Amino acid sequence: MDSSAVVSQRSIGTLRQVHHFALNVKDLQVSRHFYGEILGLRELTGTEVPSTLLDMVKAGRICNFVTPDGLVLDLFWEPDLSPPDPDPKQAFTRANHLAFDIAPEGFEQAVEVLKFHDVAIAEGPVTRPTGRGIYFYDPDGFLLEIRCDPV
Has domain 102-151 been given CATH number 3.10.180.10? Predict the structure, then answer.
């Protein structure tokens, strides 16, 4: 049996959980206040900040919060990004991407399955100190990521 037939019979594998959700925000300080002070989420500081994001945090381009159940919310400062319509009741998204976690041993299979099904890849696979990831688009163009911890 050729390898493409084997891949077509498999799915990505077992996604373990949502790892993080990233939003683009127009005013980082206003959003930091909203998520931290109003919603009561805890902001990651010091050694809690992922090493791959330290420079961006120090430059004031991103901040990270964690929900009580451990979901990380990344806020990316994008001051020039405007929604298609100033009326918030109109459908639009300022979401950056949704990341799913997978066991390291399942990462390569996930990449093969995405490629086999001609899923549009935005970036990757990439390797960072926090693990490996691949960014890709769903059928509506929403950016998703499958990532795993370092081996």
Answer: yes
